[in-house]
Design goal:
Helix content: 40-55%
Largest sheet: none
Radius of gyration: 17 Å
Number of helices: 3
Distance between the termini: 44 Å
Number of domains: 1
Order of helices and strands: HHH
Length: 78
């Protein structure tokens, strides 16, 4: 029942989010960080998936849409 409920909720998502699961290239930090990343594990995959589902729930919500449309400031990515 829980799995079916999850798939039902997932099928209603309208937000288009693309993500990938991978170990980071530590060279991207240009020596500014000695411990910036950790190995990607099944636990971190689960945590990232849950985080993304939570974010999608917000982005898909009517209240988020209304808050963005009615923000008292210029809301854009420029």
């Amino acid at each position: 029942a829980n799995t079916q409920s999850l798939f039902q909720k997932l099928s209603q998502i309208t937000t288009n989010v693309t993500m990938s699961y991978e170990n980071a290239d530590t060279n991207n930090f240009k020596g500014n960080c000695n411990d910036c990343v950790s190995d990607f594990t099944p636990q971190t995959a689960e945590e990232l998936t849950n985080l993304m589902l939570d974010m999608i729930a917000v982005f898909d919500s009517k209240s988020w849409e209304e808050a963005v449309l009615n923000a008292p400031f210029q809301f854009s990515n420029s």
